[in-house]
């Protein structure tokens, strides 16, 4: 008997051969099990080691922050439980001795089951990976689609900035209008104090024996705001109707222009009429209808100016707004009161926090200290409050410390108010700060066209239009400028050309003060704060050395050749010339401004001025932008030197006198790179010359307020790159040429206020890129071409209610068409521009 049989047979027993064989088989199996138990321990140790390496990876995937599909998360949770169960079994198995055969075997069977589950998951892993890859591809495709939609929205916002709701500027306008509405509700906190409005209103409409009423007070105390609230008051409007004239006089007034405006107002003439062309009717006599009238003279600085602008006539009241008390003129007056502590806090909090109270948890003591330093002046409260918006407390501490160092603000400390508000400028980004300082280059109280300002910044600051519009919005949100919307635009303005910018004169003074720091030849800007008869003396005294200014702003009266000094501006990129004269000799130093990129020439006189020394343009090889206002445009000839880099030309209130229509003039040769042409308020433009159609690179053509324009060129389709066509407020235009239907790149068409336009061409559906059309106040266009229904690119329409029904029918066939009904606007405030 072998040893297994001997071990198996108890003493005294003799086994038969069959039983002995069974014992041998049993012992053999026990040996296998025993050896397997030894291998169980080795396998368990290996299993534990592998699981311990795998578990952290699984946990890292689960809690990586990446959002997994729900199904995948469940599977990973199940795998984690299996691995933990396996580790627990290995601990148990290793705890048993080898002779605990049953327990080891049972545990191993459980481990085998777990192992199979893990193996199944691992076998399916490639499938999971493929599924996840597919899901990732789908998600990435969705994200790319989202990015594409975002890109399209950005492009649309950039496009809107040029001709529509302008993402940044529109938002800034909306915020400003909401703020104005918020403060005009009459619920206890009103900047233009209700008490003051009531008192002045009673002075104007309650007493017929008082012809001149004054509002006076320190700068920044809200005088102009109060005056504007008064003329918007329902009772005042009911009394005077639309017979209200608002004039800004300023420190350097053009008395002749203001007189002409007053005479035009009395005689019912156009606001642009010349004083010389009006009848010499004596204003002292009664006007024909003797209806009540109100003339508001804002920002009057001297009694001399007031004496020349005050006309006592029957039924006419004059409201004077000034820092000074002209007692000898006033029959009644109102002195501005500073805001109460509560009103000051509410206005400040509205600017700093967007609400009328200090937010919970903010340092109330610190806020009160800053508010107290503003001394109840609305302008200081708004500007300083806005500058601290979203700032950390340490910025507030710094502002409070700097404000507390100043002297009390009073009539004799106007510069101290500027210094206090100058603190807010320190919190601006460097590029935004430079753009704010550029605003000092414009005359006081001027409505600065948004397009003009953006062009200056693009040429001098190395930024694109999108960033320029964002900076405008930033300065508006900081209350450092005011956006003014053309009253004719109603609630749906359609173009950046309907937006202009104004600035409080204290803020303008601040910009000039900061720009004038340092040695004159090293300044970035060389500015004339107000209109003078000649150039400043320190310019002349330092003209022996080059001036490093990038922006040069001149504001004079009539200048002859001998009135100019020879000066060198090697870095000048922008030259702004403001003057008041019938003829004007352009400065000879333009000839040496080799880097000049933008030239702005504005005549503030009563008649269009003749420019002399126009030959200086011959050396302006880098000139890109030209703005001429109230100028007699010089004749172009075939010998005119080409301006190859010229991109934009804007002619406003100019006498064109057929200067662009000579058959011998090759406009594409003179302006080969022109992309933007604007002609506005040019009353002698009867026909757009056909030669303009050769300017094939033009993308924006704007012909607005040209009341004599009768037709457009028949070959308009030669402007193959034209994207924007504005023919706005041209009442004598009766039809559009058929060639307009061939402008395949056209995206925006504005025919608003073309009151005699009778129809749109039937072939307009061929404008396959057209996205927006503005046809407000086109009363004779009552029927729309059926072809509009096939224009799938059209997204926005602005129209009157009378024609909206036709567009609603079009909208059934054109998906996503947005129809905006324009509000009626009957105001003549735009004549005050």
Automatic annotation (TrEMBL):
It comes from Melastoma candidum. This is Uncharacterized protein.
């Amino acid at each position: 008997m072998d040893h297994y049989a001997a071990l198996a047979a108890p003493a005294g027993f003799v086994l038969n051969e069959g039983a002995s064989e069974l014992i041998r088989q049993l012992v053999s199996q026990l040996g296998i099990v025993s050896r397997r138990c030894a291998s169980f321990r080795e396998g368990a140790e290996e299993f534990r080691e592998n699981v311990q390496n795998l578990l952290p990876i699984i946990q890292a995937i689960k809690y990586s922050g990446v959002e997994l599909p729900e199904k995948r998360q469940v599977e990973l949770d199940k795998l984690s439980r299996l691995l933990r169960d396996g580790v627990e079994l290995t601990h148990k198995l290793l705890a048993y001795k080898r002779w605990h055969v049953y327990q080891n075997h049972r545990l191993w069977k459980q481990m085998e089951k777990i192992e199979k589950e893990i193996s199944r998951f691992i076998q399916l892993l490639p499938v999971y990976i493929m599924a996840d890859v597919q899901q990732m591809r789908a998600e990435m495709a969705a994200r790319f689609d989202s990015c594409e939609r975002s890109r399209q929205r950005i492009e649309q916002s950039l496009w809107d900035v040029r001709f529509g709701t302008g993402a940044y500027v529109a938002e800034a306008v909306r915020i400003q209008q909401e703020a104005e509405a918020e403060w005009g509700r009459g619920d206890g906190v009103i900047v233009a104090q209700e008490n003051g409005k009531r008192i002045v209103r009673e002075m104007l409409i309650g007493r017929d024996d008082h012809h001149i009423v004054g509002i006076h007070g320190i700068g920044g105390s809200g005088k102009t705001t109060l005056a504007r609230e008064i003329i918007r008051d329902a009772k005042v409007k009911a009394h005077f109707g639309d017979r209200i004239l608002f004039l800004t006089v300023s420190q350097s007034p053009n008395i002749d222009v203001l007189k002409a405006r007053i005479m035009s107002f009395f005689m019912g003439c156009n606001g642009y009429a010349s004083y010389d062309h009006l009848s010499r009717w004596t204003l002292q006599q009664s006007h024909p209808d003797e209806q009540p009238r109100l003339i508001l003279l804002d920002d009057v600085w001297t009694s001399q100016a007031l004496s020349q602008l005050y006309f006592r006539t029957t039924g006419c009241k004059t409201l004077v707004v000034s820092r000074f008390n002209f007692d000898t003129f006033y029959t009644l007056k109102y002195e501005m009161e500073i805001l109460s502590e509560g009103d000051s806090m509410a206005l400040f909090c509205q600017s700093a926090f967007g609400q009328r109270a200090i937010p919970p948890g903010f340092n109330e003591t610190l806020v009160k200290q800053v508010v107290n330093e503003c001394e109840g002046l609305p302008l200081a409260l708004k500007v300083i409050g806005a500058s601290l918006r979203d700032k950390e407390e340490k910025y507030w501490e710094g502002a409070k410390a700097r404000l507390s160092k100043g002297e009390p603000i009073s009539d004799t400390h106007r510069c101290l108010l500027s210094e206090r508000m100058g603190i807010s400028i320190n919190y601006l980004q460097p590029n935004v700060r430079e753009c704010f300082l550029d605003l000092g280059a414009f005359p006081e109280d001027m409505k600065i066209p948004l397009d003009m300002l953006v062009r200056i910044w693009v040429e001098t600051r190395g930024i694109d239009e999108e960033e320029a519009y964002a900076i405008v919005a930033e300065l508006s949100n900081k209350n450092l400028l005011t956006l003014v919307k053309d009253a004719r635009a109603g609630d749906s303005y359609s173009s950046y050309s309907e937006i202009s910018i104004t600035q409080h004169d204290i803020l303008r003074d601040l910009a000039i003060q900061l720009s004038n720091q340092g040695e004159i030849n090293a300044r970035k800007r060389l500015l004339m704060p107000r209109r003078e008869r000649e150039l400043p003396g320190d310019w002349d005294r330092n003209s022996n050395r080059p001036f490093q200014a990038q922006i040069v702003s001149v504001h004079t009266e009539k200048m002859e050749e001998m009135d100019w000094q020879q000066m060198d501006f090697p870095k000048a990129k922008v030259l702004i010339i403001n003057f008041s004269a019938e003829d004007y000799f352009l400065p000879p130093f333009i000839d040496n401004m080799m880097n000049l990129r933008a030239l702005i020439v504005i005549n503030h006189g009563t008649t269009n001025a003749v420019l002399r020394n126009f030959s200086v343009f011959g050396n302006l090889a880098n000139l890109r932008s030209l703005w001429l206002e109230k100028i007699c445009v010089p004749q172009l000839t075939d010998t005119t030197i080409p301006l190859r880099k010229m991109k934009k030309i804007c002619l406003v209130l100019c006498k064109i006198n057929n200067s662009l229509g000579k058959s011998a003039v090759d406009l594409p040769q003179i302006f080969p790179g022109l992309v933007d042409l604007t002609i506005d308020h040019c009353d002698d433009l009867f026909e757009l010359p056909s030669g303009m159609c050769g300017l094939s690179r033009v993308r924006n053509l704007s012909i607005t307020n040209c009341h004599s324009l009768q037709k457009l060129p028949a070959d308009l389709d030669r402007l193959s790159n034209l994207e924007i066509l504005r023919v706005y407020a041209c009442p004598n235009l009766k039809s559009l040429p058929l060639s307009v239907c061939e402008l395949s790149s056209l995206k925006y068409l504005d025919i608003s206020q073309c009151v005699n336009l009778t129809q749109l061409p039937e072939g307009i559906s061929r404008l396959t890129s057209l996205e927006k059309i503005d046809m407000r106040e086109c009363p004779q266009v009552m029927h729309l071409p059926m072809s509009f229904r096939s224009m799938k690119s059209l997204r926005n329409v602005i129209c009157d209610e009378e024609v909206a029904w036709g567009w609603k029918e079009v909208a059934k066939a054109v998906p996503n068409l947005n129809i905006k009904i324009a509000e009626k606007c009957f105001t003549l405030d735009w004549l005050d521009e």
